[in-house]
What we know:
Blueprint: H1 9-58, H2 65-73, E1 88-94, E2 97-102, E3 162-164, E4 169-171, E5 177-180, E6 184-186, H3 188-193, E7 209-211, E8 216-217, E9 225-229, E10 233-236, E11 239-243, E12 247-251, E13 260-262
Parallel strand pairs: 8-10
Antiparallel strand pairs: 1-2, 3-6, 4-5, 5-7, 9-12, 10-11, 11-13
Helix pairs in contact: 1-2
Amino acid sequence: MRKQSGFTLAELLIVVAIISVLVAISIPVFSSKLDRAREVTCLANRRSLYSMVCADYLSGDYPSLEAAFHGIYDNNKSEFPCPSGGTFSWVDDGDGKGHITCDKHDGSGGSGSGDSGGDSGGGSGDSGGDSEGTTYGDTDIKVQDNYWPKQSDYDSNIYGNITVHAGGVFQYTDGNYYIVVRDTSLTKSQAASGPGPSSETCAYGWYNTEKMTGRIITYSDDNEHKDVHRGDICQVGDDYYVFIDGEGWVYGPTVESSRWYKIPN
C-alpha cells in the first residue's frame, strides 16, 4: 500500500498559532494607520474649508470669518466631511481671527484650521544657528532662543491661551527656522503642533507664521521685480525683510511694503 503523507496535528497547531500571532500584531498596526489616514483626511478637509472661508470673507461676501464659516459649512457639510463622523466648529481666537476644530480630532493631531500636528515644518533648515547670540545664515539677524511656547508653559493655566508676539527668527525643534509676523494666540494643542509651514497650513491665520526658506535676495533699484517665495529674505541696507504674501514676481520692500515684514534688529 502507498503511504499517505500530510501534516500532523501538532504541525497544524503550530501554523495556526503563528498565524494568530501575526494577526494579533497586524490588526493594531492596521487600525492605527487607518485612524491616522482618517485624521489626515479630516485635516485636509478643514484646510479646504478654511481656504474657502478666507476667500469668501476677503471677497466681501461675509462680515467676518466666523460668519463665512457658518454660511459655507452649514450649507455644505457633505463637501467637508470628517471620515470619523466628527463635526466641525469655529473657535474665535480674538482680533477677528479663528480656527476650525473637529470634535473627533482636535487636540490629537491638529488645531482645526488645517494644521497637521505631526508635520510641523518638515525637513531641516537651510541655514542659521541654534542658540541665542548666533545669526541666521549669512545675515546679521540674531536667532531668538526659547521663542515658541512649551507645553510646560500651559501647566499653570491649562485652559488658557498664550500669545506669541511678532518678532524675529527662531529655530524650532524640527530644525527649521520660522518667524511670527503677527501677534498670535495659541491653545496648548496649537503650540504642540509647532509653528508649521505657512504655505501648507493656516492654523494660526494664513499670514501669522512664516517658514524661512534660506534664500536671500536684493534689489538693484525700485523698478526691479523678482521671483520671490514666502519666507524669502530681502536685505535693504542694514535692514532685513521677510516676504509674507505667497509667491510671484514682486517688487522690493521699498515699493510693496505691505507684502514684506521688517525683521526687528
